[in-house]
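User: Fold this; tokens only.

Assistant: Input:
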Amino acid sequence: MTENNRIEYKRELTDNLEKEVVAFLNYKDGGVIYIGLGNDGKVYGVADCDKVQLAVKDRLKNNIQPSIMGLFDIIHEKREGMDIIRITIAGGLEKPYYLKRYGMTEKGCYLRVGSASEPMSQEMIDALYGRRVRNTIGKMESPRQDLSFEQLKIYYDSHGLNLNHAFMKNLELLTPEGKANYAAYLLADDNSTSLQVAKYADTTRVNLIENRDFGRCSLVKALKGILDRMEIENTIFTKIGYPLREQRELIDSTAMREAVINAVVHNDYSYGATPKFEFFADRMEITSMGGLPYGVDEEDFFSGFSVPRNKEIMRVFRDLEIVEQLGSGVPRILKTYGRNAFEIRKSFVRVVFSYEKPFENTGSIPLHTETRVETRVKTRVETRVETSQLILETLAENPTLTLAQLAKMIDKSISAVERASSKLVKEGRLRHVGPRKGGHWQVLEDQEDEGGRP
């Protein structure tokens, strides 16, 4: 059999192997490459078959993008008593595939044409890429067009931002045809997107003891509900000692918050999947569906290189200061838990937080979930006035603070400051003047009347 549009012969492993593989990946039917056969099909064999197979696998894994793991097989065969290698390549679904060193250019993208691998034109590359990304939530039409955004408006108001009549266009919540897109659907007051927090009795998913749905509302509200639940579940162990006491969290709260936000921001909602949040007896797992975003490999991911899958959601989360800066989340998780906490697959990214253990040999007092729920309820009632007053007093002296800066200054969580400031705005005691960047807060009451400083 001679070479054709689906068969390529190589007498030995050469430097252009990846080019031939890319060409078959971009071809609709894939193809087969034989190593150890001449162009005329004559058998020459492979001297060290095991070594060559390992080299082929390593090169295909590391030198081609997007990932082609699962799209090729390397088989050892015998022809005329000699060893040869057969590489079977499937036509990929994420076209265009390309040589990593050259990127998505004419030097990096090839297509099988007859028995040759020809460079693709830039026009063809752009067309293939356009089809591949067509199902982003910004281009997908919302299942419903009768959407309301009262919850989102409240959150923007609490940050001194106003959503005017053109906000859907400004926040890129419309398709190119002018209809509400899927990002708008996720941020609307009412949708069918379920975001659940599950709790199991042991280390398996067999004995479910609690499953609470925080979704079916604006994604911002759902996220805040999940973060509050995480805070409740995160037991704090306290060791009483002299002169200081020591505390240890079940899960590092900073890492946990970043993992939750990342899961919501980077989840692939385009095919209906939603992130999962699960508590087991020995660990917590946070799973974001869809794998790594296009163009990001593991090294990019771990170095904090950020390519938001859902740029519309990222935009809103940055406006509301939920996300401080691009690429900051993963390094914060790595700082405490390292790379072993991550499980990266083609279809999902999972973070696994193993629980810390109580202090040994004494005085270790675990603040359990039930106690924390009761404490939080009491604390909210007892300190609401105090938190509101702290906000007013601090902003009176520092009117240009952002809510994130304010939360840090008064030692409160961002969600607590958002709730309190939103209430103050509604009550007419606080307002934001001017643009978000460059604007300032204005306190609309006499601090002395409220028990503040004279």
